[in-house]
Amino acid sequence: MNASPPMNKTLLQVEHLSMKFGGLVAIGDLSFEARRGEITALIGPNGAGKTTVFNCITGFYKPSEGMIRFTGESGSEFLLERMPDFQITAKAKVARTFQNIRLFSGMTLLENLLVAQHNKLMKASGYTIMGLVGLGGYRKASAESVELAKHWLEKADLMDRADDPAGDLPYGAQRRLEIARAMCTGPELLCLDEPAAGLNPKESLALNELLMDIKNNTGTSILLIEHDMSVVMQISDHIVVLEYGRKISDGDPAHVRSDPRVIAAYLGVDDEEVETVLTDVGDENVLERLDGHPDVAHGPSTSASMLAGPISDTIDHNDGERVTVSKGASKAALVEAQIASAAARKPATRKAASTKPAASKTAGGAAKATAGISNRLDAPRGGKADNLTRIKGIGSVNEKKLNDHGIYHFDQIAAWKKADVVAAEAYLAFDGRIAREEWISQAKLLAKGKETEFSRRVDAGKVATSHTSAPAKPAAGKRGGRK
Length: 483
Ligand SMILES: Nc1ncnc2c1ncn2[C@@H]1O[C@H](COP(=O)(O)OP(=O)(O)OP(=O)(O)O)[C@@H](O)[C@H]1O
What we know:
Elements lengths: L9 E12 L2 E12 L3 E5 L6 H8 L7 E7 L5 E3 L5 H6 L3 E3 L12 H7 L2 H7 L4 H5 L2 H20 L15 H13 L5 E5 L7 H17 L3 E5 L3 H7 L2 E6 L2 E6 L1 H5 L2 H9 L5 H8 L6 E2 L34 E2 L5 H14 L2 H7 L9 H9 L24 H9 L5 H5 L3 H11 L4 H4 L2 H9 L5 H7 L24
Parallel strand pairs: 3-8, 3-9, 6-7, 7-8
Antiparallel strand pairs: 1-2, 1-4, 4-5, 9-10, 11-12
Helix pairs in contact: 3-6, 3-7, 4-6, 6-7, 7-8, 11-13, 15-18
């Protein structure tokens, strides 16, 4: 591998990529590039189309439209959308890991890394028994494979577990083993699908170190899907943000984290609330419903890739699921429209317009707006915050945002005045949702230790985007919301 990248920095160029499943547009006219020697992150809310982009790049799906140009280190070009997945791995040298770990759990760590080099070894054997049982070429390749496996076990801090079954490793170590296995194939591009999912902070740190080591000391570039922003913001050189299959932002971490479209996309759409948002948008004409079956012509290939694992894992998404997509559901698009209309307004009329809370949905506007919430606290009372996700409309992401700005308890929300609602809505980029979803009346009940139908579902662990730290039932007459 070569640690000094050649002059042409563009490694991967995605142009006008679209992927449709029946009536569902999972990716729409997406263009971006990943540069050689960099870590490029693909982020976006659930269902934004990130894994579908990976599946198109790695040949699991054949895109409905568009081009994926890969320029290898030697200068050779590949059009990945035209190649079957096993050739993408072998010729273009693109390796990947999956959202769900796919190791051979009964094999040792070392064996897992040797199996990954199976193609190289078979080639060295000349595909003959004689080659396998003793001719020099195979023996040399075999010794090299063991050395390479040891090198990556060392790098992944797993050497002392080399002879243990992979299934015995803790979760974070299994994630690193997967990456080590992919690195044993000598990739030019390593595609990682949510490598930090389920890791504790210590494991996350070890992952960051491994990825930075790969970036700094090998010629391998990384394309990363990740929800963990501490990983994304720390190690990425370049971030592409998707929402509903459309690119809403593209730039370095500083640019992306302050882009109002990104803030809106992340804060405005909780999984469970997509349907609510669609109803709010109220435009029946823009609804496209998936009638249950993916478009088989473009769907997953019957893979020959040894690392692919069971193909059924990639097609489970629509199992019994009703998928609904609406342009109007895009919070980023709403922000874009607001920015465009604000720009179109003359300075004289801008002042009048700015009395509307929704007009301040920029990062700066949001920061000012939170300063305007009147009853903020420095820390939760008694050191323990209420589970705000028991309020319908507040998911874990928005709970964290509220906590970050001094709102921890039901009674704080219950006491919100109109100006506080305006400030909170501007900060969370919500259009009238706080009033519509009756956060204040829910908060009043919860603060008195009463339950709502929704809070009962949260406490029973039935709401995916909420957490279930079911609070102890307060004694009668005591204010349950106060800690
Ligand atoms: N094989 C398939 N058949 C039908 N629909 C699919 C298929 N694969 C993906 N989709 C749909 O395409 C959309 C994008 O899904 P995708 O998994 O790419 O999103 P994502 O951004 O990776 O989401 P997450 O962060 O939850 O993993 C979703 O609406 C999903 O249900």
